[in-house]
Every structure is written in structure tokens, then in C-alpha cells.
Fold this sequence. Notes:
This protein is mainly beta. It has two domains: 2-59 and 155-264, Thrombin, subunit H; 70-145, Thrombin, subunit H, CATH 2.40.10. Helices cover 12% and strands 40% of the residues.
Amino acid sequence: MLFAAKINRYRNAAKRRLGVFATLAAVMGGAAGMACGAAAQGALSYPYLDGAEAAFPAYRAVAERTARGYVMVTLMARPDPVSREGGGELHTGSGIVLNRDGYILTAAHIARGPEFAVRVRFSDGRTLPGEVVKVSAKEELALIKTAPLPDSVPIAFGDSRAVKKGDPALALGSPRRLWGVVSVGRIRVPNIGERLDYGTWGFDNAIEIALEVESGHSGGPVVNARGELIGMVAGYELGDTTKPQYRSPRITYVVPSNDIKKWLGW
């Protein structure tokens, strides 16, 4: 099952659609997803390479470093406090380790609110429970807290104002509940100059990147060629889903790192 919030955008008189997705953990098909995830734990995968990596020769080394500050985030419904019935997995996204104290950034549409619990998963397959401590739907940002993370290496923040058209970019995420799926692309528009709103969520100053992402990448890091964080994946543009053979536009929208720092008070 997929949760999808869609909006219509008009730019240069062209109608476009933006999708923001989180993979839902349905009972049917869940076991297969968990098996795939278990097989992939600890190993990065590169299913989207299309030639853009030629301009980013160190992309594998950058991905390995970035992975130490990236996690898979699973949103959990809490069981009934009296009967202890209910609960369980709702959907999966990604997160960015901010510090070793256990603070993790993710997308607002992934974390939803403090009434939910989260489970955070690392490269070695370890998981930790977490709490949603802050959600700002209008900035598409949320903060999660876990126990301390002494083995994580937070990703250094870069200056998103320095991003230029054509710069290489790399994203890490968790589509189909797979840990560590890497995508490589290029900056298309450093700031699209308009607000993106989709349902309850939205944000300003989006960076538009020619980059393939899928459901489960939301909340994950986007870094530059130096491995510095330039933003967080929020959503992507949908192609024409009415055609028999779907073709992705390969356009991703990212919350810029400078806006993240401002929200964090850094």
C-alpha cells in the first residue's frame, strides 16, 4: 500500500504533479518487504545509476561516509493503553542523524506527531525505539529522539545558498523498506522560487534536483560532492501514471540545509 499526497503545480503554463510518499507496512506483503530489507542491511545499493555519476567520480566513497549519518525510520502506531491491542508499523521513511545524543531529523509527513512511536534502524541491522519530539508541517521537518548514538557520524552541514545549477548531488533513502538505497543526480534549480504545499504539509525555497527517488526516501539526506548536507528529501514529481508504461521524470524536491539549520536554531 502507498500513502500519497499529490498537488498540482503550474510553472511556465505546464501542469505538473508532485508526490510525497511514505511506504506503508501492510499486513499483506509485509513479510516479503522485511525479507528484502534484512538481505540488504549494511550494504548500500545503486539501482538508479544512469550516467549522472560520471560527473561525480567519488560518489561511492561519499555514499559510504554519508551512510554513517543516515537511518531508516519506521512510524509505529501505539497500542491501546488499556487493552494493549492494536499498534504496529504504519510506514517507513528515512532520517538524518544530527548528533550522537540521539537527535534525528526526518520529514514531517513521516513522523506525523508525538502520538506515534518510531523505530530507527542502522546499517548493522540494529534498531532503537524513538519518540517524536517536534513536528512542523509547514516546514516539512520533524525531530526524533532516541538513546545516544556513539557509533554514528553526523553529516556536516553545507551551505545550500552556494548550490549551483549542474552541481552533483547524492541522496540516501529507504524505498520498499530497503536500507541504504543511493541515487546520484544534478541540481536543476537551486531555489524554485515558490512554495510547495501538499495537503497538511509544505515548505519554501525547494531545491529541484534531477534525481531518482522513490517512496521511503522522504526524510533522507542529500549531499554535495564533498559529502556535505545540502538538504533533506521531501518529495518528487510524478510522471503520467495513466500510461501503460510509467516513466519517471526524475525530479526531486529538497528542503535546503540552511532552512533546516534555521529551524533547528543552529
